[in-house]
Each structure stands twice: as C-alpha cells, then as structure tokens.
Specification:
mainly alpha, 20 helices, 428 residues, Growth Hormone, Chain: A
Amino acid sequence: MSTPAPFTAKRPAARNAWTALGVLLVVYLVNFMDRQVFAVLQEEFRVDLNLSDSQLALLGGTAFALFYATLGIPIAILADRTNRIRLIAAACVVWSVFTALSGLASNFVQMLLARIGVASGEAGGVSPSYSVLSDYFPPSKRAFAIGLFSIGAPLGLTAGSALGAFIADALNWRWAFILVGLPGVLLALVLLVLVKEPKRGMFDTDALRAQKANALGALKLVFATPSLRLFTAAAAVTSFAGYSLYQWAPSFLIRSQGMTLEEVGAGLSPLFALGLIGSVAGGWMADRVGPGRPEAYGVIPGVTLLLTVPFFLGGLMAQDGQTTLLFFAIPLLLSYAWIGPGLAATQTMTPPASRAAVAAIIGFFNNLIGIGLGPLAVGALSDALRPHYGEGEALRLALMAGSSAFALAAVLFVAAGYALKRDLKRRT
C-alpha cells in the first residue's frame, strides 16, 4: 500500500528527528557565521590588503559562488548515493579550517584561495541537509521543519556580525577569522555522534520511492517541471538582492552613515536575528494553509518579499545609521519567510532518490546568480559611480538598485505557487 499523497501525509516524525534538526541547524548556523564574518570584516582587511570594491565582491561573491555552486552538484549526487551525515560532517571540517586560514592571508591571491576552500566545504552542507530532513519529516510538516532549520542563516549572520566585530575590535581581523572558524571542527564530531542517517523516502509514495537516483534525470526534472523552474528563478533573484545587502550593508553603514565597526556589529546583529521569526513563521503558515491550497507555498513568499522593498529603500535613503537600522528591521524579519515554503515545495515535488541533486541544481542557479552576481553587480556599480558621487553615496545608490530586485522575486514566487498547484494535480 502506498503512503498518502504529498501535502496531506500525517505520519509522525522519526524518533530522533528533532535531534537531527537541532544539530543540523547548528551546523547551518556555523556555515553562515563563517560566511558573514567575511562581510563584517571586509572594511578592515580591505585597507590592510589594499583591495578595491570589485575585488571584495569577487572574494565574497563571484569566486565564492563559482566553486560553491559548481561543486554543490557533484557533492549532492554523491549524497544521493552515500551516507549524507558523514558527508555533511566532512564538509563542515573543510569550511571551518579554511575560514581560519583566511586570517593568515597577506594578499588578494591568498585570500582568494582561502575563500575557494570555504566555498568548497560549504558546497557539501545545505543540499544534503534538506534531503536528510525530508526523510525525517512528512510533507505536512516539511515546510515548518525546513523553515526551522533555516533560522541557522539569520542566527549565523547575527553571530558572525557580533563575534567578528567583537574579536576584531579586541584583537584584530586575523584572529577573528581564526577564532570563528576552528570550532566547526568540533561540531562535525558532534554531528557524527548524535545524528543517524535516516531511511530514504519513508514518507513518500511507492512510485516516488521506486525512482532511482539519476543526475541527468534530476536536471531534466527541474527544467521540465514548471513549478521547479519558477521556484528556481524566484530563489535566484531573491538571493541576488539579499546577498548584495548582506555583504555590503556593513560597508554602507561605515562609509555612508559614519558608524564604527563596533557599532555596526552591535546594530546589525539583533536585526539579523529577526530573520528566525520570519523563517519559522513562513514555514508554519505554509503548512497550515498548504494542504488545501498548495499555491500558498509560493504566494506567502511573494507577499512577504514585496513588503520588504519600501523598507529597504527607506533605510538606504536615510541620512543616519540608526534610522537605517530601524528601517531594516521589518524587511530582515520578512525576507526569510520564503525559505521554508519554497524549499519544502521543491523537495516534495522531487523523488527521494534525487532530492539532494535537485536541491543542488536549484542551489547552483541560486548561488551563482545570487552570491556570484549580486555582490559583484553592487560592487562594480559602486566603483563606476564613485568618481561622480563619492565613496559613500555611490554605494548607497548601488544598493538601492540591487534591493529593487526583491519586487521581481515576489512576482516569480506567486507564479511558482500557482504552477505548483497545477503540477500536483497532474501528478495525482
């Protein structure tokens, strides 16, 4: 007998599901913490290493994204065929060690190599985690579980901003990289001890479980399924705007608004933490409404992202840092609400044998466009505008242009939600 259809299954989570979710959440937190510490420290090492905005964007965006996105696909294919928990633990060790090595860089090339190492490790963390969680939680609880897992991102941004600024202020930026990076090695051991590899497809139909892992098939599935195409595009555009702001917001507050590094760390940290509310609430709302109206998995993200636009623009147009931070509070709360619904929908549309691969393919476009092009576009536009407007105003205008992409992302998410409704009808 086959299990109930997706979005309506009511089977309970496995015994250690919440333990797995908790530990994977902390691993994801460390992932983003190691990523954010680069952004909060970039004004410090920019001066020491004599780097331009375009070079900073290459280090924090394009070069990072190229390896992160490209390596994510073969690693995810491996995850669909092997023990995912061991793979995530190994990835955690790699990105943690290379984060620490970033503190030893003395020029652009050395920092570039360290960032490539961080990206290579982080490529093995997220997609396998989505696959693991989809085998611990049934479809009716999956958006909430993934939304809860995803609070690791805002918590990591919070911790990276606070710890990076605090350690750099107390010691220097080199020690900040080292002391933030190395604890991840111990966390990898905790993951191996506490989390078990779950059985694949325990909450899926017989037809879905019968489908075998196939890299080419996963790619075809993404391009042949309207909802997966639209969710992929929506996530990519969201990340284009989001990563631009996350990388350049600390620099904007220092250059344009006259804040110190310590003030930036203290001001941004609690705002990034607001994202955990949006992440959990978005997943919870989608699971409440989605079983009867699956389009909610796209409409909820679309509405919340559209609401972020006027607040981000208002914060960027403000003339002092405290007003900017006040304006940023609401959009930083709302901008994570898409993660649980959007990723849960794509996991549910995917056979269990290919979930990590499909997540990595979606992540490839998401990260290449989001991390790779977003910060680079803002950095390059800032460099181009600097001779006419000065350093501070140039970055302000560049960030305003980048944040406007949230409006396009909102439209794509709504379209994805209604495409999901049609795709589920065809599948049943």
